[in-house]
Amino acid sequence: MTRRWIAITGGDAAYFDLMRGCVASIRDKPEGRDVALGVLDCGLHAEQRGWLSRHGAQLVAPRWDFEFPGRAGCSEAFKALTARPFLPDYFPGYDTYLWLDADCWVQHWFAVDLFRRGAVRQAIAVAPEIHRAFRHYRHAWPEFSAVNGAAFREAFGAALADRLVRYPLINAGVFAIRAGSPAWGAWATVLDEALQRSTNMTDQIALNVAVYERGLAAEALPSTCNWPVHHALPAWDTGRGLFVEPSLPHDPLGILHMTIYTKTVPSFDIVQIGGPDDGTIRPMTVRYVPPGEDRSRPRTPEAFRV
Question: Are residues 250 and 163 in the same domain?
């Protein structure tokens, strides 16, 4: 594809270590060396801004795009959530916009390509949280339905919550939308409505309502394009040297998403696939690691410095 596009992330100083991995995971690939990068600066330090600028990122400080009752209790970082339906306003002039949460990193470029292709096919390209390995479709369903059901209920009421909590949750942490798509306005409208009642996961809940209830056309990509690590730890393919889905046929993961507690855990016990160590367990970090570095060394936020 030759269309002009931009990859965007954002957050505050506390998220910089993860954001750094997100940006580096794009830049360390041949396809990503010259990609336009944007960052929503929600309170970064000067040295952090400098690092991002040196890696070719355009930094923009977002505004409050909505008036809502709970705004006074929200941090500056919350703007990275409410600004997303307005990305063409912050970074004008691109044909397609790919958003990645700061706690995501790109392992394999196929996911980036699929998001861009999906944005051409439908109003928005997303990856619903549905996979045969995910824990919340088995023993963790009560936990999942309680947390997400509460968020739906607070913003849109019990009837809608009881209905939509049974649908595959659309993860708003990675998405692609073309510049002229109706998705921008549709998402903004529902998000504005939801923010008048709740700030609990409201950006993601609003996107789900826009798709499942308001008719927003979405291209649903496989979960390998946005893998929420807390739902299922990946396996490690020793031959290919990359993370793969833990279930057969062990397809590669394109984007790993350090959801919830996985952001701060230094390492996990990861099943090895292939070779003489097939089936064994090895402690490994699932955070971004520069090419050639040892994944067996635990990685903590302190290990990623400017």
Answer: no
Query: Which structural domain, as residue segments, surrounds residue 282?
Result: 228-303
- Is residue 287 within 8 Å of 275, Cβ to Cβ? no
Q: Are 184 and 141 in contact (CB under 8 A)?
A: no
Q: What would the two tokens of residue 298 be?
A: 């635990």
C-beta of residue 31 within 8 angstroms of C-beta of residue 63: no
Q: ∠ CA(283), CA(223), CA(189), 5° rounding? A: 125
Judge if 208 and 265 occupy the same domain.
Answer: no
pTM for this predicted structure: 0.94
Q: DSSP per residue over 198-247, as a string?
A: --SSHHHHHHHHHHHTT---EEE--GGGSEETTT-PPEEETTTTEEE-SS
How far, in Å, CA of 38 to CA of 166, rounded? 35
Task: List strand residue ranges (DSSP E) for 242-301, in order.
Answer: 242-244, 255-257, 268-273, 281-284
Q: What is the pLDDT of residues 134-162, one digit of tens each?
A: 998 888 888 888 999 999 999 999 999 99
Report whether 57 contacts 48 (CB < 8 A): no
In this structure, what DSSP letter does residue 168 have?
P
